[in-house]
Amino acid sequence: MASKQQADLVREQFTRTAQVFGDYAVASRVGEAERLARMVKAASTDRAVDLACGPGTLALRFARHVRWICGLDLTAAILDRARNSASTDGLSNISLALGDAQALPFADRSLDIAVTSYSLHHVPDPARVIAEMARVLRPGGRVGVIDIIVPEDPRVADLNNRIERIRDASHTRTLARSEFEAIFATCGLRVLATHVEEQQRAFDHWMLVAGSKPGDPPYIEARRLLETSIPDDSAAFHPRFAPADASGKKRELIFDNTTLFIAAEKV
User: Fold this and answer.
1) How confident is the model at residue 2 (pLDDT cuts 50, 70, 90)?
2) Alpha-helical runs (H) found in the chain
3) Which residue spans of the chain are classified as CATH 3.40.50.150?
4) What's the rounded Cα separation, in Å, for the pair 131 and 127?
5) What is the mean pLDDT of residues 109-117?
6) Band of residue 248 on the pLDDT scale cut at 50, 70, 90
7) How many CB atoms lie within 10 A of CB 248?
8) Coil, strand, or helix at residue 142?
9) Rounded to whole angstroms, what are the CA distances from 23 to 38, 87, 102, 145?
10) % the chain with pLDDT above 90
């Protein structure tokens, strides 16, 4: 898919879900942002950029640790959501602007930190984005990435990605951990620290923040495939039904996202 077509899909998706996704991401991912800030050793003298910043998931937290941070995103509506949060929080050292993660508006070796979260599975060429992150950093600058990952088995990865694309048409492809490591090495980035965790998600809420509700075609098909994968975990989502509560309410479908945190230094 051409880059422009993909950018249009991203803008449509995150304009439509700016409020519901923004509310979820900013509220629920504070701990993740703080973990990444520690991993990249964010300091009060640092100048940073948050690529594909969305509602400011990372930028709003990093602003509390660095001298200045710029949040760039393709979607005006979700940048407005980030600006409102920055204003409410009284953050004056954060700039938010329209921008493309594949072509950063910064000179070579001009920043100390470049970070991004849950964005690389929305771009057609994640290696190009990571290369841009490396380009704008001074020697010794740090890159930080948070993103979902898939197993190395291509059949499992294919089904996992198929479900993700049904849920969200702007999804391109989730990478395996080995792919991240290879890209970082190619870009001259030395890995400093990694962390992997399983994050439990409720299927209905997962679909809601992507803009789908029960009865919508994406909801129906994604749920069918996820339930079908339960016996052999063939998509590596580890899906299962939560125990019924005391009221006898229908058991909720839950699953796990496998998430990689990776921090590296420009050599």
Assistant:
1) low
2) 3-16, 18-28, 30-39, 59-62, 76-88, 126-135, 154-167, 177-186, 203-208, 217-228
3) 3-152+168-200+256-266
4) 6
5) 98
6) low
7) 7
8) strand
9) 24, 15, 26, 21
10) 90
Beta bridge partner(s), residue 24: none
Both tokens assigned to 118? 């849950």
Nearest by Cα to 207 from 198, 199, 217:
217
**Model confidence pTM above 0.90:** yes
Q: Which fold has domain 3-152+168-200+256-266?
A: Rossmann fold (3.40.50)
Bridge-based pairing of strands 189-202 and 253-266 is: antiparallel
Distance in angstroms (rounded) separating the CA atoms of residues 211 and 5: 20
Nearest residue to 130 via CA among 178, 182, 64, 91: 182
**CA atoms within 13 A of residue 196's CA, in its CB half-sphere:** 11
Token reading at 21:
């996704």
Which residues face 265 on adjacent strands?
142, 190
Please state, for a pLDDT cut of 70, what percent of the chain lies above it: 98
The confidence score (pLDDT) of residue 243 equals 86
The pLDDT of residue 210: 96
Q: What's the rounded mean pLDDT across residues 56-84?
A: 96
* Strand 137-148 relative to strand 111-117, pairing: parallel
Closest CA to 145 of 110, 188, 113: 113
